[in-house]
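User: Hi! I'm working on a homework problem where we have to compare a predicted structure to a textbook description. Could you give me the structure for the chain below?
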Amino acid sequence: MATPQPTDRSTDVVRPSRTEVDRRHQRRLIAAGVIGAIVVVFAVINLNDVKVHWLIATGQTPLIVVIVLAFLLGIAADRLLLARAKRKRGADS
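Assistant: Happy to help. Predicted structure tokens:
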């Protein structure tokens, strides 16, 4: 009776070829460049000062600063809510 030969599982893994990886990397770089250019144009367009009512004071601030600050606060809130949900799921299991 013949014994089955062990199979090499590393051959079962399908890896993308080097050209596919290079193309994917090139597409990401192009997309990052386009997004970067849009952000720069947006920043240059929104340089006007606006009146902002901060929590403790009121003042004139460039609109781009207000937009970036709101974006960063949104990211921080998202991360906090995701961390809270993850902790809650971990406590339930």
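For your comparison, note the following. The chain has two helices and two strands. The longest strand covers residues 49-53. Good luck with the assignment!
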